[in-house]
Amino acid sequence: FLQVLMACTRQEDRFVWEELGEHLRAEDGVPIKDRSYGFRTYRSVFVGSELVDWLIENNFYETREEATHMGNQLLKHGVFHHVAYDHEFKDEYLFYRFPEDDPLDQKIEEGGPSVATLLGGCGVTKSGWMLRKGTIFWNKRYCVVQQSEAKLYYFRNELDPSPHFVVNLADGVSIQEEPSSLKKNYYLFSVNSKSSSLLFACENSKEQEEWMKALVEAGVDMEQDTNEGMQEKSIFDFTCKDIDGNEIPLSKYKDNVCLVVNVATK
Hints:
Oligomer: single chain
Strand order of the largest sheet: 5-9-8-7-6-12-11-10-13
CATH architecture of the largest domain: Roll
Structural class: alpha+beta
């Protein structure tokens, strides 16, 4: 690590800086964990002052000023960033994150396209309501897949002036069908990267397949066992319409004796 650190002070080679970042993220590196501040949880972050502590405790620098200067060099070369991109590196209780630990969905504080703007433009292949699994609860979100930009936006409602979160689908993202046992009477799939995963629930299997198809068309990889799972459905994975035209999930009749009758209809 010391050899890499010394090399960083002598050259601008990005591969050297990336190697230094790998050392910092190692098991014996700077402490990385979920932390809370202001009623909000920040995933996989470290504290600026703890990085300074770590550099001094491991005898890389003698003073906090020297370690802080190195922290700013690391930030400048993209080894890590402030969680909200609001601060340079400081020897304070501020949260920083390595790009490898960035969550799939990036929060948008303000700005960004509205639902009307997205639907009025080109490249939107799917839009509508889904449930997204939060830390504890399932939240209803209005989602839009923009194939032309390889992005998944989701809003709190259709009238939001900007998205609540956006997922970049272009960087090694995959999807996989998930078991309905995770949310009874719903049809689930996950959107996954190396560092994180998002879980969505649809009201019926048709909606699930349409969302997954739209995401694949936007550039997402479908994991192999997902295809196999989608081909092996039971009767309880489908929905049908009742006499009033309402969608009824057949899963509600699971563990009951069912009689399926084919009748002539117009």
